[in-house]
Specification:
The chain is of the alpha/beta class and about 270 residues long. It has 10 helices and 6 strands, in the order H-H-H-E-H-E-E-E-E-E-H-H-H-H-H-H. The protein has one domain (about 1-260): 3-Layer(aba) Sandwich (Collagenase (Catalytic Domain)), CATH 3.40.390.10. The chain is globular and about 50 Å long. InterPro entries: MetalloPept_cat_dom_sf (IPR024079), MtfA_fam (IPR010384), MtfA_N (IPR042252).
């Protein structure tokens, strides 16, 4: 028994050293990542590919802590969730060629936002942010919001949300909810599905006693609707499907995944 244990430990160390040389997320860290609530819903065969893709992302991108030290698990988890949307996309990491650095803050932060001018003055207010993405700046998220948590009826996946914006920004440098569609997709079907759902959500918010079926933040603009819908697609797929089935079907065609198969349908 002792000899067997010693041989097992030596074999485990050999595998870990080989993985480090090859740049693969080492097995002990990967076991922690794939045990997290969202990642463990992914099919075992797809998790193999996800590990390889996340390892490549870590080799190609910078993940930096700002006021927080990123340990190996945190880095591996962020990279893995970041790769979930591109898992089955052709050219995978090429969809992220418009960013190089992801900065992680410890908690949400406040930032001034300038609103429309009122007379000679511009309205300014402070908003709390969990993540931010723009065309030229790094992706910024906070770990408190991004850390692993159990998916529920509503989706709160800041990593997926911000990187959905980066996918959206591949076209015309504008996050307008219209990413580059695959050749076999119908642009009008995409537009109609998202426009109908967006209008419905905005109308609901404008009515008293109407409860939005997905996060009301999606009604901000078409780009935010796409990012929020992507969060729901991966983390609360049944909620999105029951709210806006046409949007779900378009995202299924785009991401080439069907997350509803990973989750048991919740009771109504």
């Amino acid at each position: 028994m002792n000899l067997f244990s010693a041989l097992s430990r030596r074999l485990h160390r050999w595998h870990s050293l080989r993985e480090l040389r090859e740049g693969i997320i080492i097995y002990p860290i990967w076991k922690q990542v794939e045990a997290t609530p969202l990642i463990r819903t992914v099919e075992a065969s797809s998790r193999v590919r996800l590990r390889e893709l996340a390892s490549r992302l870590l080799a190609e991108k910078q993940l930096l802590g700002a006021g927080i030290e990123l340990n190996p698990f945190m880095r591996a988890y962020i990279a893995t969730e970041a790769c979930l949307p591109i898992l089955n996309l052709p050219d995978d990491l090429d969809w992220y060629d418009n960013w190089h650095t992801l900065i992680v803050r410890p908690t949400p932060w406040t930032a001034p936002v300038h609103g429309p001018a009122v007379g000679p003055l511009t309205e300014q207010r402070n908003v709390t942010l969990a993540g931010v993405t723009s065309l030229q700046w790094p992706v910024i998220i906070d770990w408190q919001s991004a850390r692993p948590h159990k998916p529920g009826h509503h989706a709160h996946q800041v990593i997926i949300h911000e990187l959905a914006h980066k996918i959206d920004l591949q076209v015309d440098d504008a996050a307008n909810g219209y990413p580059p569609l695959h050749a076999d997709m119908d642009g009008k079907a995409w537009y109609d599905a998202f426009k109908t759902a967006f209008d419905d959500l905005q109308a609901c918010i404008g009515r008293p006693h109407c409860h939005p079926r997905i996060n009301a933040y999606a009604a901000t603009n078409a780009g935010e609707f796409f990012a929020v819908a992507t969060e729901y697609f991966f983390a609360a797929p049944w909620t999105l499907y029951r709210a806006y089935s046409a949007v779900y079907e378009q995202l299924k065609l785009f991401y080439r995944q069907d997350p509803r198969r990973r989750f048991a349908p919740p009771s109504v």
